[in-house]
Structures
1.
Amino acid sequence: MHADKKSPRVRFAPSPTGYLHVGGARTALFNWLFARHTGGTLILRIEDTDFERSSDEMVAGILDGMRWLGMDWDEGPFYQSQRLDLYRSTADKLLASGHAYSCFCTKEELEQRRAAATASGQTPRYDGRCRKLTPEESARRLRAGEAAALRFAVPATGVTRFDDAVFGSVEFANEELEDFVLLRSDGIPTYHLSVVADDLDMGMTHIIRGADHISNTPKQVLQYQALGAPLPIFAHVPLILGPDKTRLSKRHGATSVTAYREMGIVPEAFRNFLGLLGWSPGAAGKTADGKDREIFSSDDLVQLFSLDGIARSNAVFDNDKLAWFNTEYIRAYPAERLLPLIEQEWRAAGFTPSRSTEENLRTIDLLKQRARSLKDFATAFLAYFGDAIPFDPAAIAKFLSDAAVRTLLVEMADRYAALAIFDEATTEQTLRAFAEKKGVKAGGLINGARVALTGQAVAPSLFAVMVCLGQSRVVQRLRNAASVPMPI
RNA sequence: GGCGCUAUCGUCUAGGGGUUAGGACGUGAGAUUCUCAAUCUUAAAACACGGGUUCGAUUCCCGUUAGCGCUACCA
């Protein structure tokens, strides 16, 4: 390791024109993982040069989403809107060195020409007419107060190439590139300029971003060359697609990280899932018996992450697999760790538990095996934590619609009330003895009692539920069995 | 349309000139029984197509097809 070898500097540079979506979150994650793996630095930069569409609210949401996923950053957030001087001076350098020129074409003119080109089957591309203007002519018009944008003068011939850590060598013919706008006529930089100026100024060594930027890259490479700067290492990450293999969008359902939090997804589960979308640890991710590992902690991911594990093809976002990760994490986490997350769900549902924290923890441990999401604890499982029972009509119809069963349950309540010891063994003996005496099947009573006690057809072992609920609740709920509303 | 990128089970992927092409999610069947889930066992399921190169291609090359991306004074 050479002392002068720079440690990596990477950035996540979201545009605050929307919420943090899953694609952005994954890009952030890969940058974070890379920085942490290499001991590098992660810079957060807000690309808000599109004033019309950017908002502080979106910035807050993006930062929030990152934190939720357990990511932090070392520098920033920097706002491009506050770094306009840098872009102007960079633009000046480009202008001075003859790599850029003023363009006086108006937006309307350009649109017209574009439309005409398209109509006649031509590839719409800026024709470079202002590039032919003499410096004197440009200066005169500028002095006259004419509005001008600044365009980059793309070489007419040759190719622009770069090495991508994921895709390998990529090259574009310069004649395919148009003279793109660097500075808008209002003096605000476009993305093409600001991204290069900032990446250079901030000393970025690696640019890890979505593959939708591949086509933009030659425009940036040209600027690095014009500025006499060395190229960073580009690593483009394939996109995340919806189930129909088109780019993931709202019509596929939830795309914002916030939405997944609100669905009751455990953040670590989401991060695990995201980390494996478009990246895999290869042989390092095998278990001793040759199977692929699926569960990776944050530390595991940091340790294993490398750019060459990134896939080249797009990946479909699979909700089923995410749900599986979620159940795995819920099951694996101790109740203490789940409780704060569940309390959030309760707050969101306006629910206050009527039992002690200790009881809640025990109950969570009992239920987590069956939970699909954190939401379950604030919906179907509410009967365990409070006094109201969320009766599921389907459950009643299935197991508690028989009046005879209801009557038996009420009668059985007295037996439970008389119990001196209330554990799984005695509660089970009690029920089975009662069933035998009445000449009915124990199963019918068990299923009926389950619904009477929990309101649901799905629950852990009935006797574990009884112990969890406690004697007085069990007795009370059994006595109420007859008055449980019948489904229509 | 032009340019670029990509192509292994339905999905996420491993692999790589000779393999029974591996795993995971999901799906089917069975076991279990106190519901459901879990669990265990088990089954079905892939190298897009066509040419090369090679003793031998899923793997390397070319083409086709398909998908995706870019094609703004958005980022």
2.
Amino acid sequence: MARSGGGMEGSGGLKKGPWTQAEDKLLRDHVRRHGEGNWNAVRRETRLQRCGKSCRLRWANHLRPNLRKCPFSPEEERQILLLHGLIGNKWARISKHLSGRTDNEIKNYWNTRFKRRQRAGLPPYPPDVERQIKLLRAQNVNPFADADADAAHANASAGLPAPPLLYDMQVFHHLGGSQQPSFHQDGSAAAFGDIVSSRLPPLPTARTQAELHSNQFDTSISGGLVDQSMLIGDEHLLRPNPSMVKVSSMPALSYREPDGSRMLPAHGAGSDGDVSSLGQCPPGQDLHRGATWDFTFAAVKPAKRRTASEVGFSDMFAVAPPGDWFGGGSTAPSPGPSSAVTDEEFNLEMQQFMSMLPLSDEHGWNA
DNA sequence: AATTAGACCAACCGCAGGCGG
DNA sequence: GCCGCCTGCGGTTGGTCTAAT
């Protein structure tokens, strides 16, 4: 797949064209020994006759671990369309929100798709995606804006301290003791995962949490931030001040009846249709009204500290490796910018947070 | 079977920004 | 402030694959 034929030499004796297995091995070994970065050192320290740029690209697009080479799923395709509609040709930023996908891959996908639709005289986005994009724009919701600043502002107005929220939050299916994420199967799923994750409210304090059942999450403490952002995309549910979180992209939810008596599962998704179609909602009754959604947060240790705006889709849908996450959320003290997070530090902060939560074992939280 | 067009994909190029000297 | 180096990003190119003719 080279542009200029295999083995072509560029200036300075540097090789161009497709990479061989031997070259890949040299690069892999080098990264294993020295880590990523300092790509120009690769040529100095190995027999690899490739420029640093080429090494970086090869590593990023083909050799680095956790790359997914399978075709895009419908969910991923939809995410790409939506994100492109919101931020344009920012392939690197889009790719950060699709776990295991490279910017090049996404760019290729878009270009191919765009050309095809253009030839067919079709608009770049399907009508439903177009609607979602317009809705987001109309709401002035930019999932890539610096959510830290937004959250700080929202909290200041609500008389709350600025949220640290520097850990990625995942929502896990917690029914039946399962702590694996379960995802929507329909194409509309996950479209707003970024907004959810990057605009999560400040996590509950011990006081506010103590007033709630189990692991419920009182959205009133968000100063309205969650209300707006989380309800986006579910037009019929937009309310000025909902009493519970209704998250269109939740993998799976359960909810508690208004009187707090029963937990009911919302199998597979957090939408009205998903729940009522299972016959768990009495006909004609809005089961959400007055109810409180229960859901599970897991904080996944990031490679480095990130601002909320850097947390995205992929974080919502990546499956945390065993032992690398905790149920609950993080109210970790605000760290310095972009410092590394050690396992010890992360675990300690998670344990501190967990100890604040009067969580029941109803869903195997403390198992 | 040969040809062609479109799709897909890997890799290169130029540019911009960050950073240290 | 300037310069050089490094890195990352987005645009583009061109080879390969595949289905249609």
